[in-house]
Design a protein that fits this description.
alpha/beta; Rossmann fold; seven-stranded parallel sheet; three-stranded mixed sheet; binds NADP nicotinamide-adenine-dinucleotide phosphate; Epimerase_deHydtase
Length: about 350
Amino acid sequence: MPEFKSDSPVMVTGANGYVASWLVKGLLEAGNTVHATVRDPDNSDKVGHLTALANQTKGQLVLFKADLLDSDAYDAPMSGCELVFHTASPFVIRGVKNNEKDLLEPARLGTKNVLDAVNRTESVKRVVLTSSVAAIYGDSADLADSGKTAFDESDWNHSSSSHHQAYSYSKTIAEKLAWEINDAQDRWTLVAINPGLVLGPSLGKTRSESMRIFRDMFNGSLFPAAPDLTFGLVDVRDVAKAHLLAAFKPNASGRHVTVAGTMSYVEIARVLRERFGVKAILTPRFTAPKALIWLMSPLVGIDRSFVSKNVGYKPAFDNRYIRQDLGLEFSNLNDCVADHFQQIIESRNK
Ligand code: NAP
């Protein structure tokens, strides 16, 4: 059971990312010294919001340049740290040219490089890994196949591969590797956070896949009907809180399904019409027939195998463990959806 010295620095990989930025904010507000690894510390569009946060809080920010593919990059930022948050990993769902090079290799090698550095750094007591529900299941149809009513921490994604749902596969192999490396030693503990699709405002200028995924919601491309797709959702601020609890709660352990609830396109659209009125007039009202989606999907770059195994299926998630182990209370999902799209509306008006 690790006890942390309050004055030792903490390290965050991919610190400028959508999820990590909220985590860094929480750490800085609590007065921590954050060793933040980024690929491009001189790019103010990517790190400007972090330096601004450091100026407004009692914590300190030290930026380090590090790429997941570089085996030596993480020793210097990790020096003296007791806590390491490993959030960096490519999060891209559509338009990936080379799955191995763009997704699998950085996810797998990045986990190895960060955790090899942890093994070399005697001060580290705990690693919090940003995994995903994508490491828990691949396709929504997997739930029916499993005979269960909801996915939980005992499930592993067995249906994704380098050719089908490659992002989900990258998260699965990375998390499995992390547990293997953790099991081979007994100095540091590993705690995994497995969020669903993360929504909510972005602190930085660059846009995660989370901000791109619903970009067509308002522009009429999904009007009047959208695919019958259901998402496990969670607020980005809850995900950051989950990471902090996983780090600082001495007894925290294992994997954590981090999903507040599920919503389909049409259910999200209903919330948007309630909150944004006429601005959301072109949001979807109905679900489109699956056969039509299946026929059209190659035209918009979506694999038919994805349509077959996800459209019309309702995934469900059991979030009891994170509420019990970390004491996390999820915020209201309708408010999260509204905050997410408020930022999208504001950025469209600029
Ligand atoms: P994001 O904003 O795109 O952040 C990804 C971070 O990883 C960025 O800092 C990015 O750096 C870094 N990264 C990517 N490739 C790298 C490389 N080769 N070397 C070093 N850094 C690299 O996405 P996010 O949504 O915050 O995702 C953060 C983590 O949460 C990921 O592990 C993702 O799988 C996980 N997650 C996200 C969601 C979600 O819905 N957003 C859900 C579940 C899990 P650059 O800025 O330089 O590209």
